[in-house]
Amino acid sequence: MSRTGLVGRVTDTVSVLGFRLGWSTVAALPEAAAYRLFNVVADLAVRRRGKGIQRLRANYRRARPELDDAALDALVREGMRSYMRYYCEAFRLPSIGRERLDAAVRVTGLEGPKAVADTGQAVVVFVGHLGNFDLAAAWAATNLAPVTTVAERLEPEEVFQEFVAFRNSINMDIIPLTGGVDPFAGLLAATRAGGRAIALAADRDLTQNGIEVDLLGHRARMAKGPAVLALMTGAPLFCASIHYEPAPAGTGLGGYRTVIEFSDQLRPRVEGPSSVKAQDLIQQCADHLATTIRTHTSSWHMLQKVFVDDLDPAHDPGRDPGRAPAGARP
């Protein structure tokens, strides 16, 4: 084995061991100590100003153009702490009892998807990179329906399998985006079989075949899968936005609880072919998420490019992606 190959393999092994230690060690820490540790990790990441932090800041700039640089920096720090809170909770989630989990979640708008699930029909749910998706899914698996979702295949493979095993342990069925059966075919079969919540984080297009929508006054590209599934199968479509809020005494995890806000059932507001209806449905999902992103920006854990101007610089040549677009700031 070459030195490069050996170094790569050692790095992969460290990654796997790190995640395994995370699930065992972080779960064993006192709650307050665990959350303090992840706050330190978040603050260190912000100080390093790596590419992910710079992208988070650029995305927050679009969402909150009224903020000056100091306020934006504070928001980025808060957002990164929120993102690390998600990981802390993910590592601790397998050891959290059902009663504690239920007390850490507040839900609005559940009546619509619950009425559908109670009939045995599948529920399609569009979610974004907001709050704690895994905790929300663990709650939904017991209080709504078992959850099926698609996940990016992480590298090394062992890390991906650790994530799959973890999510399986909280009653989530994982379809890999690559390296397995066609993910849409798997989703289609699961939707038609019924009895499940098909929850898809679709506010970032991973297929290069997404739909352009308006998000926060800017063009963004989102995945169309949830809308296409609903149109092809007749399964009702809902959007769920997720965010953190300070928890009342005696509830929550680490001083916060997860809020899940379901939209009303989304139906096409336009006539025409399926592509036109799908465009309208995804725009409705974007509108639902936008309200949460504006009011709970730090819960938006978007460290990747999502806006069209950032994905394709030709839309706005010469602009620094880390700065607000012209006219966005007072």
Features:
disordered N terminus; two-stranded antiparallel sheet; disordered C terminus; Glycerol-3-phosphate (1)-acyltransferase; 330 residues; 9 strands; globular
Structure description:
The chain is of the alpha/beta class and 330 residues long. The chain has a single domain (3-315), classed as Glycerol-3-phosphate (1)-acyltransferase, CATH 3.40.1130. It is built from twelve helices and nine strands. The protein has helices spanning 3-28, 31-48, 51-63, 69-92, 98-103, 111-117, 133-143, 157-169, 183-193, 225-233, 274-295, 308-311, and strands at residues 105-108, 123-127, 147-151, 172-176, 197-201, 211-215, 218-222, 237-246, 256-262. The chain has a seven-stranded mixed beta sheet with strand order 1-9-8-2-5-3-4, with helices on both faces. Strand 6 and strand 7 form a beta hairpin. Helix 1 (3-28) packs across helix 4 (69-92), helix 2 packs across helix 4 (69-92) and helix 3 packs across helix 4 (69-92). It is globular and about 50 Å long. The termini are far apart.
Secondary-structure map:
Blueprint: H1 3-28, H2 31-48, H3 51-63, H4 69-92, H5 98-103, E1 105-108, H6 111-117, E2 123-127, H7 133-143, E3 147-151, H8 157-169, E4 172-176, H9 183-193, E5 197-201, E6 211-215, E7 218-222, H10 225-233, E8 237-246, E9 256-262, H11 274-295, H12 308-311
Parallel strand pairs: 1-9, 2-5, 2-8, 3-4, 3-5
Antiparallel strand pairs: 6-7, 8-9
